[in-house]
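Pilot study result, target chain (279 residues):
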Amino acid sequence: MRVTLWGARGSIPTPTPANAGYGGNTCCAEVRTADGTLVILDGGMGLHWLGRELIQDGFGEGQGEAHVLLSHTHWGHIQGIPFFTPLLVQGNHFALYGPKGSAPLQELMQEQLRPTYCPVPNFFNERIGAAIEIRELEEGAFQIGSARIVARRVNHAPGVACFAYRLEEGPAVLAYLPDVEYLSKAQRKPALELARGADLLLHDAHYTAAEYPRHRGQGHACDRDAVSLAQEAGVGCLVLFHHHPDHDDACIDAMVAAHQGHGFPVEGGREGRTYTLGE
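Predicted structure:
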């Protein structure tokens, strides 16, 4: 399993010189399984740049197929979708998965593509370009190619259905928890189950430990929460993810430096970084 980060920022894109090291694009990760299946985690603005790469790899000729797992529908996780060029190419096929919430997932996707908000065609209404299949998820396990996917609901924001995911392929395990807050032991349990024994854990670290008390209840974790969960779960590597828009490279460097020596690597999520699992 090969995992590449295309966006590790939270909330809004932040393309500033001070953020160039870790990158300013919002959440998106590319997962390639051993059988060639493409799974994309979240559709933040990093998805646009992944799309440019895919156009050179079969998707430009309408021969591409991919599965997109959305954690939830906050803007930082879906606003790359209208600017994902492979969706404009007829012959490509995409399955779009997301948690079953208060409104149908397709309705939520169509809403952000209304002409009032968006300058590109509505892929869902006009049926142009790629074939798109919407799959609303309940909690549980399912198969995509050679990968077993486990979806669990996690605590993020009131009234918002938010999923985190575990991807297993042979000995390789990836846990993806980009938006989560633990206000109780019960809320921590599903995250711990997803992360247990993972080779790689991408975990929300939107706040520093010093910042977190002022933001408790706002739906995000801090670096200390991520490290604590990673320790208990026995992960191979922890990547601090969903960086706050105001956290520049120096801030993230300091967060990472504060958590060395735990028996597993702790890194900051960095655009372009690739991890190979299971080898």
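One observation from the pilot: The radius of gyration is 18 Å. A full batch analysis is planned for the follow-on phase.
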